[in-house]
Specification:
Elements (H helix, E strand, L loop, with lengths): L29 H7 L15 E3 L3 E4 L7 E5 L7 E6 L5 E5 L4 E3 L5 E3 L2 E13 L26 E10 L2 E6 L3 E4 L3 E2 L4 H12 L5 E7 L5 E4 L4 E3 L5 H13 L8 E3 L27 E3 H11 L2 H10 L6 H11 L9 E3 H14 L2 H5 L18 E8 L2 E8 L5 E8 L3 H15 L1
Antiparallel strand pairs: 1-7, 2-3, 4-5, 5-6, 8-9, 8-12, 9-10, 10-11, 13-14, 13-21, 15-18, 16-17, 19-20, 20-21
Helix pairs in contact: 2-9, 3-7, 4-5
Length: about 425
Amino acid sequence: MQKKLIVWLLPILFGWQVVDSTEIPFELTAQEEYELTQTVYDQYFQTIPQNPNVFQTESIYSDVNLTQVSGQIKPNQDFSITGVAINERKELVYQLDNTHYILASKQLLFDDTIVTESTVEQTYWLKQGFTVLSSPISNQAKELKTDLRAYQAITISKIATTAIGDFAYISDKGWISLKDLSEKDNRMEAVQALLSSNYSKNNIGIYVKDLTTETEAGVNQDKIFYSASIAKLPILYYVQEQLNAGQVALNTTVKYTAESISFNGAYKVSGSGSLSKTPDNKDYTIEELINKTAKESDNVASNLLSYYIANKFDDDFFQVTTAVTGRKWDMVSRETSAQVAGKMMEALYEQNGYVIESLLSTQFDNQRISQDIPVPVAHKIGDADDVKHDVAIVYAESPFVLSIFTDKSSYDEITQIANDIYGILK
């Protein structure tokens, strides 16, 4: 039979004529009444579906008027249409190969075929719970096993549109619904899920930021900790700002005196670092002091920079440093959060100056964040009693900030956190 329902889907145009009131009124046939009911056309098919399917389980009937239920059709069940009829209710009905009937409604049925297909080359990211299929056509599709994983970047080569949606083709893998793909890098969702499930502990604060997408994740990122030597980051940032402004140069020298280590907010001269623990009245260049602060976490070097360049933490120092973190970092109590520290490290990265270069190679690269990560890591560690911290820029393909604050934890746990996050964002 012909596929196109041409005659009875087109409205019949009746010519008007004057008739005598005594004439017997004419009666329209069911088909004529159907043809005149133009308002219902959109819900019916105008051609018989080549590959019919149902959106959900639907009843089928043994009579054309759809009054006697005789069974069901389930999604992706094989069936065909052998005829078309109009019932007494003026409904368009399909006759099935088993002599049963179903309403020919687009709300129940769809033609399970590819409507359009285009060649593309686009990058997407897989969402959680995606399914790889052998075909975009529902009743021909089988679920495939692949090595693809959620949040992975993939390249699609084709997009096919069907009645139930759009599907993307991954070469040598299969078809995936576009609903299961993200046009934006969604890996930070995986990071957040990891942190929430594995590291949501009261003694840990973690802040992560992808510097390309500017997406963030964290747990207890606003929790306040004693920051120990992490508080040297705003000092280094302010020094770099003065270098960039031409107020000082790397070869500028300052003298190591008693006054330069005894101001309010100065670090105790004990601890790591190679500079003398007692004032020697020698001159040291800004370059040397940056390196000793960044690479050795030298308290004396940090004090000299704070005394001479940061002017013992004057108003300008706090104005400049607070502008990049959004929160004042008290240089006496040294209390702050993993997020504030992470934002300061991001600011150092954006300066792209001598300081960030110095932080790329330190005496502490064999521990904490940088221990196992195979790409460059610019980081600053901080220890004091039970607190152990590390804040870094990880130079993955898309660089990211990783700030980890801990209390009564271990270097190994910091390393594990870093490895888990890098495994997602590498």
